[in-house]
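Practice problem: predict the structure.
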Amino acid sequence: MISPRDDNGERILIVNDDPNLQRVIAEILEKEGYELLLADGSGRAMDLLHQQPVDLILLDIVMPDLSGYDVCRRLREIPATKELPVIFLTAMDGFSSRIEGYEAGGVDYVTKPLIPSELLLRIRTHLSLRRSSRDMREKTTILDAQLKRLDQVRSGQERLLADPADYPEINAAVRFQPTLEAGGDFYDILKLSDEDFGFLVCDVSGHDLGIAYLTGAMKALSVSFTSEALSVQDTAVMLNAALRKFLDYGQYVSACYVKFSKTQMLLDVINAGHPAPFFAPHHAAAHFLDLVGDVLGIHETVTCQTSSFKVHPGDRLFLYTDGLTESWPNSNGKCGSRILGSTWLAKQVNDRSHHPLSTAVHGIVDEMLSAGQGRVDDDVILMGIEF
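Answer:
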């Protein structure tokens, strides 16, 4: 039996058969105040896990007994360790190795030689996700029985959303218009390096209290699977592999992800079953980027179209969710037919081409609300980026 915790600290199990590397990792983590358990192989690791609980495992892949992949698969079959975050530690840096790790149940991947700051960042991210997931599950259980507390779920979701004001190096504006229900729209703005940024807009299918947990998970996944080194295609593949682990049957996520290099003034765009982004060049005709792709979280493999092109100062890109163009409640308060659509959105963007970006973004959503008498039956996100 696993003994109960008698402290509030976080405990990490390091499984590695290299005593020198094990010692180096231990020194890094002890300085951060983590409690540690050390194992030189899978047998010792399983014994320790039966004796006392841990919050995260750093797991080597190549070991003399079982591989790290096999250990992780075994952990996923045990109720007490089924949801325990496992970060693989290995010298193998191939893309296929990463995918195999995620399919085995790992949440992340750190390669040797170790970079202490990267190791600590990934550990903090997944411990934070573990805490958030545990807290959100508890809250969702309570809220499911007490619908009057739905506002707490909504405010919790909104706190996860990025504030463009925190990124003064770029000109971005976002309007998030939630419904009265718990919706699944999510966006993030990510600083990938000093000169590279990521912009993500996605829509989790469904409108129930469980969506609050999923949008919380999307925040952690967006941090884990977006980086300067990963292509937009790599990010989509990894998000899909991760989402397949915890989405319910029939659930899915549509997403549009954009990487922007300020140095090269280069955009990389991928679309996974999401509404087409609208590109409005400063000195050319505006148009939709009609990229098709599979939604995430259903299929084992996904195929998504990408586009890469240069932008110029003054060019704008708009990402949005389908609540902006597809439906509104009718006069009886039920879902009616919309029919603003893409032509309406293009006109709204073009009519506001000389407005400041934030004014344009908020003006477009306000116009949509006016057309629907102030009501929406789906979350609405509109994100504008001016380069």
